[in-house]
Amino acid sequence: MLKDFYKLNKTPDKKQSSSTHKSQYFGTVENFNLNISEIKNAKKYFLKEEDNKIIDDICLTLEKNNRLPFSWTHQENFYLNNCEDFKSKIEYLVYRYKFKVYPEKKYLSNFPTHVLIEPASICNLRCVMCYQMDNKFTGDDIKKNSNKEMMGKMNLELFKKVIDECSKEGAGAISLGSRGEPMINTKFIDMVNYLRDKKFYDIKINSNGSAITEKISHAILQSNINILVISCDANDPDLYSKIRRGGNFKKLLKNIELINRIRKSDYKNSKLEIRISGVYFHPDQNENDFYNFWKDKVDTVSYVKVQNRWDTYNNPKMIEKNNPCDFLWEKLYVWWDGTTNPCDEDYLSLLSPGNVNNNSIKNIWNSKKFNDLRELHLSNNRINKKPCDRCGV
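-> structure tokens emitted (393 positions)
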């Protein structure tokens, strides 16, 4: 969960602002320059009864409480303020409702709203709070990546297969990157290019920023990718090297300067949000110093609280945390080899409901194995399932 702040240093038109925003709040009609009657009339754009019910609920909550029925972050602001088409704004609100309300209320859609694709499980860093530090996952050697079962890069045909199904079935969000660094896949630019003609509301890249090049920058800025999240937890080289082992802080700065410079010179109308996201856990980290260093270098700056993301399996059991996990109704991960998983806290895939090489995402999402896991959580029995019984999320 995001901390109780989400620092915003630039408004979407790139004019500098000194605003500081809460990470989550409930948006009002003023946030997206629409009135309730306009939203009601937008039902004519939707053929599905399910979507019209969502619009009714949005309007009802706005009328009653002057707020949307789901939390609002800078991500929604950034998207809608860059969106000039009325119909697209309404479709986006419906999608965000499904993204946030369905998991909270445990409504199961026919297809995951968010599909996270792993171009590579291999990473070029060994961050101290990450499961890349677990030799059961990576093997013993950072260079050799000796665990052949877990380490690899997704081939382009499998990527296309996954994207095609997500596009056909109406997934709203696609993320590239999970357990490893996505940009080290030699087919990464081809993957980005393949997304160009597909309609998704959010396409996000999660990266450590170390492999950004001029070619990759152009590919991203020419695509419909709208969020580039660069994971970095420090504002000086010494602290960075302590946390993100194997990384080069000066090179990271040059890479961020590079993509910013290309965006400014060649893609003035780009809708890409460049975000620095830090994990807050080290005693030498300082929130204000972090924000002040990065605020003029990227569009948004955020911190997330650290999770016990390795060694998940030997964490102590959390008997008191027995509530159903929202992830089971929200998203699905597809690893580099086609293995699917409900979350990346389970980075060794003990919970995997299937593989897309021999099944469809839709069938896996609605499978008995996945539904049995959901039922286990709903019946307050997650404490009987490893690693759900020791997960801090």
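The radius of gyration is 21 Å.
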